[in-house]
Structure formats: structure tokens, C-alpha cells
Amino acid sequence: MEGHFIARAIVCIMILGMGVPIEVVGRNVSSSKLTVVNIGALFTVNSVIGRSVKPAIKAAIDDVNSDSSILQGKQLNLIMRDTNCSGFLGTVEALQLMVNDVVAAIGPQSSGIAHIISHVVNELHVPLLSFGATDPTLSALQFPYFLRTTQSDYFQMQAIADLVEYYKWREVIAIFVDDDYGRNGISALGDALAKNRASISYKAAFTPGAPISDINDLLVGVNLMESRVYVVHVNPDTGLRVFDVANHLGMMTNGYVWIATEWLSSVIDSSETMDPDEMDLLQGVVMLRHYTPDTNSKKTFLTRWKQIKDKETLSFNPYALYAYDSVWLLARALDVLLSEGESISFSYDPKLKETKGSTLHLSTLRRFDQGEKLLRILTTMNFTGLSGQIKFDQDRNLIHPAYEILNIGGTGSRRIGYWSNHSHLSVTAPGSSYMKPLNNSAKDQQLYDVVWPGETIKVPRGWVFPNNGKPLQIAVPYRVTYKEFGTKDKGPIGVRGYCIDVFEAAVDLLPYPVPRTYILYGDGQRNPSFSNLVLDVSQHKYDAAVGDVTIVTNRTRIVDFTQPFMESGLVVVVPVKKVKSSAWAFLKPFSWEMWSVTGAFFIFVGAVVWILEHRMNHEFRGTPRQQLITVFWFSFSTMFFAHRENTVSTMGRLVLILWLFVVLIINSSYTASLTSILTVQQLSSQIEGIDSLVSSNVPIGVQDGSFALNYLIDELQIAPSRIKIMKTQDNYVDELRKGPKGGGVAAIVDELPYIQLFLSNVNCEFKIVGQEFTRSGWGFAFQRDSPLAVDLSTAILQLSENGDLQRIHDKWLSKNACSAQSNQVDDTRLSLNSFWGLFLICGVACFISLTVFFFRVYLQYRRYIPEDEENGFEDPESIMTDKRPSRGTSFKKFVDTKETEIKDKLKRKSSDSNSKQQTSQIADGQLSSPS
């Protein structure tokens, strides 16, 4: 209702003011028999855009009227109105245009006028086909009869936001004209930047047609600010004043970034040759231009342009193509409307009636009856024009928005890439990219090198410390414990410590000065809360926090951290006690099972070797007493590789080699284990790491102000009643010495750098158990999107590479180091599980050797027994007692007999057997011969 009221009021006031004659023709006025269709054109003729648009619109009207295949014989009649670069006069001209029974209007050029006239055309159902109003808010549902035939600034600002992200800038300053076009375009830029975690740090607006002095004052203030990336979104007719002033202020030199929206390319394209002095003002500027494909029809129009008479410019900008296509879009839509049997007619709007006593003749305004249907046809059209494909999406924006990105240098400009809503930044023309998948990856964006102001290809940093700004307000934790990391000092800067030295060294590596002031955070009575410190930085109470601030997940959500300069992680510390040596300490390396099996194997192997060597090695023979001593001596002397007996049998040597290898391993392990036992410290509690600490119910100590408190409660679900806050290192010592039974704590959970310093201060009276159960680091905290965080991260890496970071560490923290781990004595004992494989191999070798040995002896015995029975191999005692030896007794004597004797007897047996055979053969021969 408010829009309708505004439209009525403005129209009526203008009609009365202009003295428009009032004529009542009737309720319905039909023009079905007319051969002329009125269309309007609304723009500033004497302007950068108007000088290109006017010839293009006239050429399009001529082309349509000369084409007999369209509009069914009707002709288009162009009614042109000049808005004269004035919002007020432009509105008046637009209202005058509406009373001429136009079916549609090409324009307006101005977004401000479009806002006002859109209310009027909504009431009169007259579509507006605007080739120049780029204000994104005109696409709202509030303006259904506004149809933009050019690209919306919504997409242009998306392109600029991608440029800012591509070069890793985080803040820009927007310089714009303070009207609907400028305000709403910059608002769209802010939204686009926010999606990429960037922002507009300052909006520098000036009034339309502002004098040079106002622009000068504006840029002087801008130059004192931090950001050096400027986005200029102004009108093309006065925009060059901004660069003229910037050049005089020295703002077109090295370190500055100037990005101009498509208004600048429109200025340059409209002039076949730019003034060299004006081009000197623009060196290094990056600008955007509407992308229109290089088609044959576009080239033909370029040739035709040169033949057009009465044109005020030798060249044209893309708005001429959009205006030309707008005429053809309307003509095609009217052709569809007429082909469906519709006639063009106008009628009086019953809502626009005179009120009693009113002198406003609203009833004279007529509504286009087919306007709603024509609008529907317009939004469904699809054809290829000079500017590319003319087709609207569901938001009634032209599909495939795209821009060229240009860099001004010398006497012209060069293309450094393209932007489209499909491929974003690319060096490939948008037409080919629509066949590929949508590209939203930042790492795949690509542009050619830019020559920035100051004739450098090095990408500007994009910001400086403001000339009139305050020094950085840096909060430093006022520590009570571990003051080596950072605390109060009487020196010039007021603070000192390891973290301060690292920050100062990193700042010294930056290529620009960083004015700074250190502010102590805390009361000096207890350690401050680091979580509150980070929160204060995020709320802009401080610019940064420099100290031992741990980088944890919930903190990274509200501030930006630098590269970690110190690795950290939570560890568990418990008391320890020295192990006192005893007279039986030498037995502790092995478990009792290991001792038993080892001793048994010494005897077993000695017995096996004796069995294998007894029949052939004289060193293993003798009286039973001597042989028993030999077995034990040989067995245990192998422990020291001091055995004197030689092995002569193959099997004996095999067993001995394997056994000596087992002995070597056992000796080495025993020596290492005994050394560890004699030097190890034993824990005085059963806490072996974070798992056993969590599962127990013992009290735990944490440092005051540390994030460990919240971590234990929130992440590990430890009851708060079990946790004690430790405010000083003396509390650490006292509570650990007391232990749980004395009202102290069983363990302390704290970050590794603190614990390492604490242990060195107490001469390693306590120990770290288990492993670090968190992995993090210390970094410097800055407000979100602060460029200092990135630059200091690079500086910290340089400190690490050149060794300065380690030298600072050694200056403040290098003391007697304690071992990070401690083991209980029971953990150093070696059990049978570690050696059963060796014993198994040795036992198998012994078993195989014995099997082969007894099988061989058995075969010899089988050959040997018949000889004993035949020749009376008997014991002399058995002969005297008239007793024959048993078979078992004979085998026992056989085994005990030296193998050389057995072999000799077998040889004799073989020769005697041959002699007897020969004698028997001779005897048989004599008996068979005749007497």
C-alpha cells in the first residue's frame, strides 16, 4: 500500500505541475487497428553510457522495423526521454513517458530513478527493461515489472570478493557514491566478502556530483587508515576525479591496491583513444568489464557502428550491446503476444479514481491490459543476442553472469583473467567452462600476473599500520608461576620472558614497523584465566595476546593464532623413590621361570653333548665320577665361553653352536636388564599414565588458569571434586610429597613445557609417566582476520629455521633435563616369554641329534650282535660264574665301547667271514672230486 501511495502521489504532482491536458476518451481504448506500437527509452543522453546507448537503440529499432517477419506488420515507435543526470528531472521525464501509452520502456539507466518508476509501472503494468540499473535490490519481489537486461552488481561484487580472497587480503575500504546504486552495490560487496571471511573496514561515501575538495578530504582520511585495498564503485561520468585526487595525494604508488567496478571500463571503452594524462592516473588499477562473447554478430555490429551517423563517440561500451538486445527482446516478446491473438489495448484503472474535492486527476492514467502477459513472455524468452544468451533464471537475472578482469598499464589495458559464477577466477573464457563441473575450489582459481601501482608484480600486502592510529594493545599474562615464560619487568617495555623474546624477535623480521604497547593481564596474585584473555581479544578489548597461550579448538573459533612457537601437550607427573640395591639384586633381571628353564637347559645340553661325544671323544670318557664332573663343567663353562673340551662329532658341534648362540643372547639381555635395575627409579604410586589416573579416585592437581581444568572435566569426565588448583610451584612439591593419604594429590596434570621446567627446579624428584595425551602448541592470539597473524607465522618459521628460536629457548629454559619416562623394576625383568623361541630351537636340535645318534648306534649294534654270539663275546666274570650276558647288558657295553674299537671288530668280522667262505668253497670242491 505504501508503494501505491507513493506512486500515485508522485504521478499526480507531476501531472499537475506540468499542466498535462486531461482528456476522457472512454473506458476502454483499443489500438488493435493501429500499425504503430509505442515503446519508451529512458536514459541520460549526454553521459558515458548514454552516448553509447542512443545509437544502439536507434539501430535496433531500425533493424526490427525493417524485418517483415516480426510484429506482424506493426512498427515500433520510439519515444525517448533524457533524464539529464538528475534524479528529480529523470523522474519527471519518466512520468511523462508513462502517459504516452507505451507498452514497455527501455531503461532507465539510473538505479535511483528505477526505484521510483518501478512503483509507477507496477500500477500501470508497463514492463521496464533496464540495460543500466545494476542495483541488486531491484531484483526484489517488490518490483515485479522491473526486468534487468544487464548483469546485477550482486555478481560483480562476488567477483571482487573472489579477487580479494585470491590475493589473501582480509579488509578493503569501499569508496562509493552515496545513492541507491552505490549504497546497495557496496552492501552486496560486504555480504560477498563475509562469505570469504573478509570485510569492509570502512565505507567512504560522497554525494553525487561532489566537488573535488570533498573527495580530497575523504581520501585524506582514508589514507590514514590501515587497509590499502580500495574498491571504487562510482558513476562513470565523475569517477575519474577519485583517481585524480588519489594521484595528487601519493596514493597511486607501491603498496596500494585499486579495484574499480565496471564503470571504469565503460569510460575507457567509450573513448577510442584515452587522454594520456588520464591513463597516467590509472596505472596499476584492476578493473572489471562485462563479458560479452566475440561472436560474428558482435563483429558485424562493430563494423556497422562505424557507419552510424550522428553518433557522439567513435567507440561503445557493453551497455550499447545490452540496450540493443533489450529492444530485440521486447520485439520478440511482442511478436509472441500478437501471434497468440492478443491485441494491444489500454484501460482506466478503477483504483485511480478521483476523490471528492480533489484536484488530482488520477483517472487520466491508463493501464496496459496485456502488460502482465507480456511480462510473463519476456521472462521466458531465450535467444542469442549481441551480448550473449538472453535467458532469465528464477530470480529474473540473466544466466551465465561473467566479467573480464583487466589491468591498466601503459596506454591501455590487458586481460588477466575472467570471472563467472561457474568457474569463478580463470584464465579461460567462460563459454567453455559451462561444459565442465562447477568449480568452487579456491586452490583452482587462476589469474595472470598483475602490474600493481608502483610498477611492481609483487602482490601488495594490502594493509599498513595507520599513520594516526594507536599502537597495538598487547595483553601479556601476569604470571605468578613459571615467570620464565612471561611476567612483569622494570625495563622499558614493562615485560620479560621467553614468550616476549620470541614475539620481539619475530616482529623484528617483519618488513614494516609494528608500534605496540604491552599491558599486563592479571593482578599478580594468581595466574590469570587464559580463556578469559582470549575472549577479551576476540571482543576487541586487546589487539593481541602474547604469552604461553595454548592453541585449543574452542579458542580458534573466536581468534586467529600464529604458527605455534612451542610444542605442548598435557602430561601426568607423580612422585618417585630410589630403588635400594640388595645382596640379591643380581637375581632380579630374570624371573624365576627364566632362571629354572635356563639352568635345566645348561644341564640338558651338557648331557646331550656328552652322549654325542662319549663314544668317539676321549675327553668325555673315564670313570663315572670323571664323566659326571665333565658334563657339569662343560655345561656351565659355556656360559662364559670358557669350555676346554673339544667336540669332534658333527651332531655335537651343531648342538654346541646353537647353544652358544642362545647363551650369547641370554648374557646380553641379563647385562642390560641388570644395568637398568641398578639405575632405575621406582614409582611411589600405582599411576602409570592418564588411563590409570582417570579410572582411579585419587585427587589430581592442575595449574591455576590452565585449560587443563576444563579438559579434565569436559573431555575426560573427571569429577571436579577430585581436582585441586595449584597456584605456585611450592604447592606442586608439597601436594605431591603428601600424597593422597596425607591430604595431597597423587598426580599433577599440566603442560609439558611447565613440567619440564618444574622437574629441573626440583632436581628430578618427580617423574612424568605415560605419554602426552594431547597434542597442541603455544601461539600468539590476534583478533579474527588480523593480517599480523599471517605475517608473524612466517616470521616464527624463519626463527625456527635460522636457529634463533632454539637460542631463545636455551636462554630462558635450558636447565638440567630429567628423563621423561620412569619404569618400575618389575617392568625390567625378563620372563620366559621373551626367550622360549630360542629354547625351542635349541631343544629341537638336541632331539634331532639324539635321534640320529641312537639310530646310527642301533644299526651298528645289529651288525655287531651276531659276531658276539658266534665268537663268544662274553664278560670274563660271566664265564667264571657260568652265566651268559643278557641282550640288554650286551647293548650297554656296546654303547660304552669306543667307536673305533667297534669299527675294528666289524672290519675283522668282515675279513673272517670272507676267509671262512673261501675255505668252505675249497672243502666243498675237494669232497666233490674223485678219489
Radius of gyration equals 51 Å
Unreliable stretches, pLDDT < 50, 5 or more residues?
Answer: 1-9, 15-32, 820-825, 867-886
Main β sheet profile: 8 strands, mixed
- For the record, give the distance between the C-alpha atoms at the N and C termini, rounded to a whole number: 166 Å
Number of strands: 33
Structural class category: alpha/beta
Order of strands in the sheet with the most strands?
A: 8-7-9-10-11-16-17-18
Which band does the percent of strand residues land in? 15-25%
Count of DSSP-assigned helices = 31
Mean pLDDT: 82
Share of residues in helices? 40-55%
Shape: elongated
3D architecture notes:
One of its GO terms (biological process) is signal transduction. One of its GO terms (cellular component) is membrane. This is Glutamate receptor. Keywords: Disulfide bond, Glycoprotein, Ion channel, Ion transport, Ligand-gated ion channel, Membrane, Receptor, Signal, Transmembrane, Transmembrane helix, Transport. Belongs to the glutamate-gated ion channel (TC 1.A.10.1) family. This protein is of the alpha/beta class. It is 44% helix and 16% strand. The protein is built from 31 helices and 33 strands. An 8-stranded mixed beta sheet has the order 8-7-9-10-11-16-17-18, with helices on both faces. Strands 26, 27, 28, 29, 30 and 31 form a 6-stranded mixed beta sheet that branches. α8 (240-248) links the parallel β9 and β10 (257-260). α18 (592-613) packs across α19, α18 (592-613) packs parallel to α28 (836-871) and α20 runs antiparallel to α28. The longest helix has 36 residues, at 836-871. It is elongated and about 155 Å long. 38% of the residues are buried. The model is unreliable at 1-9, 15-32, 820-825 and 867-886 (pLDDT under 50).
